[in-house]
Amino acid sequence: MLNLRLGRVSYLNCLPVYYALEKGLLPFAGELFPGPPTMLNKMLLENKLHITPISSIEYAKNAANCIILPDLAIGADGRVESILFFSKLPVTELEHKRVLVTTSSATSVALLRILFEHYYHVDVEMAAAPPDITAMLNQAEGALLIGDDAIAAHRKVILENWDVLVTDLGLAWKEFTGCKMIYALWVTTRQVMEQMPDQIAVACRLLHDAYRLARQNWPDVIEYGHKLTGFSRAFINDYLDNLIQYSFHAQDQQDLMVFYDYAYKSGILDERAVLHIWEGGNCPG
Q: Which domain holds residue 202?
């Protein structure tokens, strides 16, 4: 197989898809590029990666140039525990208050904007900031964090008994719409697909095989996640086994379109999104 460059979101939620590749349980001659979602989004669109999980909102903004690989996504049907908004006041009391959002994410920032406008009905001042919960709350009334940063910040808030409210955006989205939230999609570009469709098909099957192999070695995955993050094994198992979902079936696609519809209504998207899902190559195997 050609030396493929695969993006790997450097958060715990991607571990089940990449564990077998990182541990050498499957042959893989390519390279893995870990990083936050915003970095991987940029690298894919600059043709520095062949395949990567991309923020679902960034896919929608670049749908004309991107193709979704089938039946693989990062989502949660309600509580997610890693897309968290920390605030000094109840969310409905943040009118005209300053809110800082992580520079690591695009989808979660869009989700927060949608919830502010359509669910909580508050107008806030939003600005980007590095993902540091202490610094963010020293400068603003609220802070959005994602991934391992959010999980670690939540632990800190609890252990140190901060007077801070924590809103799980996945749960808020479920309460608002009744829908599952899809945070990321595995994507390639049209240019790459046209140039190397056979290699993309092989890589797609590889990702699905890697996920299945991780499920077969689940205790090892949990232990590896514990060593990487320091989070408890019980939390990691609950998070990866019960909260995070990796499917992208018809209902998941319909739920994602609800998010895109609200993003369009909020002016985050200039036009309504279309899902371009690759049907060739029999990826899932």
A: 5-77+181-265
In the prediction, which pLDDT does 282 show?
54
Report the alpha-carbon angle 115-109-67, nearest 5. Answer: 110
The string of pLDDT tens digits covering residues 207-251 is 999 999 999 999 999 999 999 999 999 999 999 999 999 999 999
| Alpha-helical regions (H) of the chain | 15-22, 37-45, 56-61, 107-114, 133-139, 147-159, 169-177, 190-195, 197-216, 218-229, 233-238, 250-265
Number of structural domains (the chain) is: 2
d(CA 228, CA 247): 24
Same domain, 59 and 139: no
Phi, psi of 24, rounded to the nearest 5 degrees: 75, 25
Q: Given 177, 208, 234, which residue is the final one in a domain?
A: 177
Residues 116 and 246 reside in one and the same domain: no
User: Is residue 88 domain-shared with residue 173, that is, in the same domain?
Assistant: yes
End-to-end CA distance of the chain: 17
Per-residue pLDDT reduced to its tens digit, 30-78: 999 999 888 999 999 999 999 999 999 999 999 999 999 999 999 999 9
Q: For position 215, what pLDDT does the model report?
A: 97
Of 228 and 285, the structure prediction assigns the larger pLDDT to: 228
- 93 vs 89, 110, 198, CA distance in Å? 6, 20, 53
Q: Where residue 167 sits, what CATH number does that domain have?
A: 3.40.190.10
> Residue 115: inside a domain, yes or no?
yes
Helical segments of 31-130, H only: 37-45, 56-61, 107-114
